[in-house]
Amino acid sequence: MEHRDIALARCNFLRSAKSIAVWNNVIFVDETWLNANHTVGKIWTDNTPHSSTKGLSGKGKRLIIFHAGSMKGFVPNCLLAFKSKKNVEYYEEMNFPSTIIMYNAPYHSIQISKPPTSSSKKVDIVKWLNDNNIVADMSMLKVELLHLVAINKPARPKSVLHEMAKEAGHNVMRLPPYHCQYNAIELIWAQMKSYAARKNISPPFTANKMLSLLQEACDSVTAANWESVVLRTKNLIFAGWDRDIDIDAVIDNQIIINTGDSTDDDEGDDDARP
């Protein structure tokens, strides 16, 4: 998390987040999953067939879930949940400007007119250049074409999602890698999964049943729950910024003692030596 590029991403995010004036307009977006066999680890039982259930084996069918929310609660009609085709690990209408906070997942970062690379075919490079009003043709060498790409591609790639949000009057902020604590919806996911686990204690353990429990879990999350986690996240962001300022001050003011050889300035100055 302290690698230079990660620390810089965190700095950029925290600096932008600190400038947010109205936090009830901040939308937190994320994806998660639920398995059909998701349940509590232990339950009370009197060992009778009526109160006992057979232990679950495997994870069952998986649901992929997307949602968004703010201090007002979940964004209405925003829930997207569907059955995964693979059982593998899974790494009120708005009419006001909002800040949307999301991760840098690949499917969040699809670029508009993505510049070609050295692995691209010449015909594709020429097409990209011509589409961007740059004169190029197949008679040019690939190295020449790639040079034109390098000097003409945008300094920052344009994201499909960013442009869609911009057209609707909203702003997108990307979370720095490895900093999930700055996404308030993570705490909402934990609350929803806990609800689903407590309710999913008897057969059938199916994806359709979990879809129903998922909707119940969403309905159980109140605006007060959302307000609480957003305020907690806001405090974490401000505390994170203060922490980085303190660390920066320590690094800048630390005393460096050179225990190596003499500097070049000392060498050759016989009068300065004892």
Report what the structure shows.
The protein is an alpha/beta fold and 274 residues long. Helix content is 38%, strand content 12%. It has helices at 4-18, 122-131, 142-152, 160-167, 185-199, 207-220, 223-253, and strands at residues 26-35, 62-70, 73-74, 80-83, 99-102, 171-174. Strands 1, 2, 3, 4, 5 and 6 form a six-stranded mixed sheet that branches. Helix 2 packs parallel to helix 3 (142-152). Residues 89-95 have low confidence and may be disordered.
Structure at a glance:
This protein has helices spanning 4-18, 122-131, 142-152, 160-167, 185-199, 207-220, 223-253; strands at 26-35, 62-70, 73-74, 80-83, 99-102, 171-174. By secondary structure, it is of the alpha/beta class.
Descriptive labels:
six-stranded mixed sheet, alpha/beta, 6 strands, globular, 274 residues, single chain
